[in-house]
């Protein structure tokens, strides 16, 4: 432990936190990525980390997405107080808003799962998780509110300490995925019902009648650039037509995904796969490969003229087979409710969130947030027609904004 680390350790955090277990923890606060890099790379190499907390992923987030948000980086490092061994890293940020400050995870909308990096085999009791969280809050700078979403209960078979906190509530998001085992050539037959296999066959034949079909994995920089450009064009066109917000309308998000896609060629997690008919791309997928899993992160499809072939659905099916060929044993559809996920065999799992006030102002902010959420739920339940009109109006405004940006 170097002098800088010692200076950052909280004296309060050095005291035992979980006397019942005999374990004591100490907390260090790093305000830049370099200070935490050694522990980060060690935990990533030896411990339990989601694809969305990899060092290269978060480094790209901080490079492209954090600057616009006026964010202060806050990485809490949890160590064994006796040995100094790094046990966990909690990468967070403080957002400085007008009149208030919010502690969030360092995710900026591009992390489907939130969890600390953990040492191999580490599990905490609920009391230990609460004690660690209390100690982390004690070393963070002043803020009004903590907001963390998309928290899975487990990470690679181990309890997520964030999910163990008593203040968690149900997230608006759910996730889904499925184990993939056995021979790749018969994977779909094993996991899909006979009716789904007939649908896959029918839509595949429709696609084949329109040209030679190829499943493509981007394995060179030129291929990545080509496929990423296609994905971007397809998504922006589709989301603009639907009147839905897409993060890829922001140049810094485009730069983030392009960089991480290229880094996937040299050890990064990102992979680009696509479905091509003749010389036309009909579907593309940006995924992450990590910890024996393929995580579907971005999916795009061609225009409506291909709709009866369901190219996105067929691409996912082929990506599952490819993932199994690579020796992966889990296919993660990630966040979002789409019918094709359950159709293929995906199992849904709830996610959790944390909204914790740290001041009187934070209590008021939490009340506003919960009021808006409850108001939306009330409107959907009691006045669905009005809710639909308001949503259609918002979508029309987004379509108009998208056309203005293109002109």
Automatic annotation (TrEMBL):
Tagged with keyword Transmembrane helix: no
SUPFAM superfamilies per UniProt: Acyl-CoA N-acyltransferases (Nat)
Any one Gene Ontology molecular-function term assigned to this protein's record: transferase activity
InterPro entries with a match to the protein in the record: Acyl_CoA_acyltransferase (IPR016181), BioF2-like_GNAT_dom (IPR038740)
Domain BioF2-like acetyltransferase: 195-341
Record's keyword terms, sorted: Transferase
Tagged with keyword Hydrolase: no
Name recorded for this polypeptide: GNAT family N-acetyltransferase
Organism: Methylobacterium soli
């Amino acid at each position: 432990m170097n002098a800088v680390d010692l200076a950052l350790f909280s004296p309060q955090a050095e005291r035992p936190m979980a006397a019942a277990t005999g374990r004591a923890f100490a907390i260090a606060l790093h305000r830049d990525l370099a200070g935490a890099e050694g522990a980060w790379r060690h935990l990533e190499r030896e411990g339990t980390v989601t694809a969305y907390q990899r060092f290269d992923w978060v480094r790209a987030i901080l490079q492209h997405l954090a600057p616009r948000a006026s964010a202060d980086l806050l990485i809490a490092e949890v160590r064994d107080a006796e040995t100094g061994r790094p046990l966990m890293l909690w990468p967070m940020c403080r957002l400085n808003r007008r009149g208030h400050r919010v502690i969030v995870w360092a995710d900026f909308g591009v992390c489907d799962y939130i969890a600390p990096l953990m040492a191999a085999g580490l599990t905490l009791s609920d009391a230990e998780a609460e004690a660690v969280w209390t100690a982390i809050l004690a070393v963070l700078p002043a803020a009004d509110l903590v907001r963390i979403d998309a928290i899975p209960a487990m990470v690679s078979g181990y309890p997520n300490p964030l999910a163990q906190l008593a203040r968690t509530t149900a997230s608006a998001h759910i996730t889904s995925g499925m184990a993939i085992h056995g021979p790749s050539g018969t994977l779909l037959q094993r996991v899909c019902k006979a009716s789904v296999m007939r649908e896959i066959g029918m839509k595949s034949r429709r696609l084949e009648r329109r040209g030679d079909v190829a499943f493509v994995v981007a394995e060179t920089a030129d291929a990545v650039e080509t496929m990423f450009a296609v994905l971007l064009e397809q998504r922006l066109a589709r989301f603009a037509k639907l009147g839905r917000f897409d993060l890829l309308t922001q140049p810094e998000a485009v730069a983030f995904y392009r960089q991480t896609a290229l880094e996937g060629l040299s050890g990064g997690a990102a992979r680009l796969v696509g479905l091509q008919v003749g010389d036309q791309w009909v579907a593309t997928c940006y995924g992450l490969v990590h910890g024996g899993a393929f995580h579907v992160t971005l999916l795009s499809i061609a225009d409506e003229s291909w709709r009866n072939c369901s190219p996105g659905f067929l691409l996912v099916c082929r990506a599952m087979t490819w993932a199994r060929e690579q020796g992966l044993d889990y296919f993660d559809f990630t966040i979002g409710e789409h019918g094709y996920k359950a159709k293929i065999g995906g199992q849904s799992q709830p996610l959790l969130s944390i909204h914790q006030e740290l001041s009187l102002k934070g209590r008021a902010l939490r009340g506003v947030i919960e009021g808006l959420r409850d108001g939306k739920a009330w409107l959907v339940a009691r006045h669905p027609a009005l809710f639909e009109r308001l949503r259609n109006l918002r979508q029309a405004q987004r379509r108009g904004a998208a056309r203005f940006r293109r002109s």
